[in-house]
Amino acid sequence: MRPVNLIPPDERRGEQAPLRTGALVYLVVGVFVATLIGVTSLVLIGNKISQRQTDVVELHRENTAAQRKAQRLASYTQFSTLSRQRVETVKNLAESRFDWERVMREMALVLPDDVWLVNLTATAAPGVSFEGSSTGSSGLRDDAAGPALEVKGCAVGQQAVARFVTVLKDIDGVTRVGMKSSELPGEDEGAGTNAGSENSGDTQDCRTRKFITRFEMVVAFDAAPIPVNSSSDVEVTTAEAAEESAGSEEAEEG
Question: CB–CB of 182/175 below 8 Å?
Fold first, then answer.
């Protein structure tokens, strides 16, 4: 026969006790699980925030160190920039400097015996004037943007002037020679007078004989770079230019 348990289900114990189930149990379990997930999330988020804060502090520290290092090296950067600027300035000045000493030396070598100078003005740019000088730039000088020589003197005849123009073109760097005037003394002027000195700016006409020609010309160096500073311009006046040229020529021949 099959045994029958006559004890009410609510009072049974052991393996025969029925499981007590209901909505309350599931609700408690759900709340517990949700709480566990929330706490875990908060812990993870808190750890991540702490890590980010640590990273920010480290970045600030590195940034401060980099700024201090940049400040220490700023003087070297400024020195390097200043050094490059000065090197460039010196290079430009060197490239734009005109060698007047060489030109004067070559002028002394090519100056013929039958030609003498009374005024020689060397300027690096047109429009340059000298204190105490009674002469101004001629139109031919204004046409030359770079260095040029304004030459005034006398020669034994027009052919001597022509030969002088030819030898001037042999000077290194000369691109053209412009003749402003080349005149013999007129019959009404005579020789050795002051006639025509208003145009030339000379106090004494160098035409001491009727066959002597007075000339004015401009020797241009168009291919030369225009100097940055024209303060090196020089002026040589009177017969001292011819004497210095002759002395230089004798020294070279010696």
Answer: no
